[in-house]
Amino acid sequence: MRALITTEPFWSTTCNQQSRYSRTSTRSKSTSEKPLVAKLVEYVMSWGKPEQTPPKQIELKSDQQEQVEEERCPKIKQISANSVNPVQQTYHSSNRSDVSQSMYYSNSAPEMRVGFAPEARAQPMPALSNTREHLGKVIPVDEHQINQLLMHRRESQVPKGLLKYPVQPLQETLTRYLESLQPLVSDRVMDKEEDLAVDFLRNQGYELQSLLQQAGESSANWLTDRWTDVSYLRYRAPLTIFSSSCIAFPKQNFRNSLAYLDFTAKAIHAMCQFHWIVENNQLPVRKMEGFDLDNSQFHNVFGTVRIPQRSCDYLQQCKSNYIVVIHRNNFYKLPVFDAVDKRIFNVLHIRKQLMKVIKSGRLLGPAIGLLTHDKRDHWAEGHEMLCRKDVNAETIQCIEQSLFTVSLDDAIPVPAGEERSLLAAQLMHGGGPHLNSANRWMDKALQLIVNPCGLAGLCCEHSPAEPQPAASIMDYILKNVHHPNYGHHAKESHKNEPLEWLYFDEVDECVTFWLSTANRTVNELSSRLQLHAQRFDCYGKSLLNAQQLEPDSFVQMALQLAFYRLHRELPAQLETAHLRIFKFGRSEIIRSTSNESFKFVRAMVSEETSIQNRLFALKAAVDYHRQQAMMALKGRGIDRHFFGLEQMAHEHGKALPEFFKSEGYLKSKDFRILSSQLSTPHDSFMVYGPLNSDGYGCCYNLRENDITFTITAWNHNPQISARSYGMAIESALADMGHLILDSGNCTSVLESDSDRTQR
User: Fold this and answer.
1) pTM for this model (two decimals)
2) Residue 727 CB burial class (10 angstroms; 0-12, 13-18, ≥19)
3) In Å, how far are 263, 352, 387, 455, 590 from 330, measured between CA atoms?
4) Residue 648 DSSP label
5) pLDDT value at residue 450
6) Distance between CA 96 and CA 76 in Å, rounded?
7) What is d(CA 304, CA 318) in angstroms, rounded to the nearest whole number?
8) Does the first or last residue of the chain, that is N or C, have fewer Cβ atoms within 10 Å of its Cβ?
């Protein structure tokens, strides 16, 4: 995710200043664009009432206005560790509604994974209710839970100078959408889309734009709460693979169990320190082009859990002083903060408690953790069945209210050369029910996973935050965990809460049924997901920067060239950009496929194209992608605007316009490459599932002299192969590197990289 997932030192007060880029490029306009522009201009001039564009300068609001805005924002329900069990309140209620069988669905969210069956193509997503008093508010499934369904926003911890998320002019968005569509469809489809766009702008689009502008005026960010609700909380597929992302640590070499537990204890201590930094507002506010970046997502990951419900989940956050350790499917409550002075216990104490866990001698526990991998409605039913017994309800409440969970996994064999792929699989799904899948609690926003064989990383539930906070936590852990005396001089534990085993009552027939269902789900997920991780070590971003080629945009072109060579067609390609320049901002889409990228791909596969023309096409494609990326970072993307217009139709009971059902629109949103960047100096990587059954998920870590890729795909289509796509990416990068080399501009750079590698 472009600049969204970066692990530059979090204490740095500024980020690298990014240049402003103009929209000028070497791109030649196609003949099909001129009639559209003429139509749009003619329409706007004749309408006599052009749409109002949001003001460019956002005035700071008074504290009273800010407070009113805050009341409109959905919140994560905050509870104390001593509160009455909300689970018992929920599941002992007899008037809980059943799952709606007639919910209206939208197809507007591209990050939505397909339905649970990998064969299914893009599954439409449920829309928000059209009867809401507060924008972004989730319709409660029980009247006693109204406050628990609201997302938390910490107004006092958000800089007052953050920008308000705007509503872009519809004419601009439509023009750029049609431009992005040209390389993907035929001339016949393009002509039809142009006519639909003009009709949409003249009729329904104008009305929906007005409604969206009204929504934008009434809140600091009209997008985030709707996006979280529709794309995550109402999404019914399993969190595993479809929603959660994972960040892998470098392979560790544990000499013995003491070294294994020492690493884990230091990682726990580092996470607790990072939590203290966040809660005490010690995270510096980074900047982009002079504007503050929003840190609110950092407050949403510790103590947060996604509670399963029929039809729509909700988020809950608890300020607790303990974590939950999971070992051989057994759960243990481990206090990590002093209950009185809130100081973190030292590493020696935490390691001692972890040693008690692995030396407890308890048999393999019931596979309750498997339930959290299942479809959300299935897990909601199993959750209810479990919580009918008070012992189980108390155990689940304790797990859900923990700061985060720590999975101490059983060791597995690690074949040489397969370390990265195996690590990715263990973090994504645990390897299956026969390995470590039950040793998880997928509802938790943060899971630290450590295996005695040296595999370690974080698994992150995506609904409360983007991966940026987890990436920063990973970076903080790795900067401290290898110091011999790290955390040894923190608070010693004397009279504190003891380590507590959290047990489940004997499961009944109903729970057994849902366990068997979850077992099948995990088996299918783990067996049908292809995972491939590799490192390209010929060059990295130092070479690309020396040639004044934006490294991220360069890799995006390599992904597209590799796909075309492998499948002989141009894919719709997605890269994610952050919106942290706006208050409560989350993410936007960069549409990486363009006329410029298509010209580059055709130049590379044509034997008749000269080296100079190929290099010219490469630079044009990279520059154009860079411009699109900067526009997305500034809130001028295409897809979130369209999402907002669709939601206005749903919320106000209007029919979905034909524009959103057209062949071209659906084609443009059938993203066969879901990509993002994890930028960290460590030998780490991020992994997530593919967006649909005919495409790939691809994340990469661009370092100075190498690039690490992780690729995922479903295996139901014999033409889709994660390993083959990885090999095609390597070939594309090699050819693009030779293209730069053959231009005669960077021999010395390549030689210096080679010398560094040898040294």
Assistant:
1) 0.81
2) middle
3) 21, 18, 17, 20, 43
4) H
5) 98
6) 21
7) 7
8) C
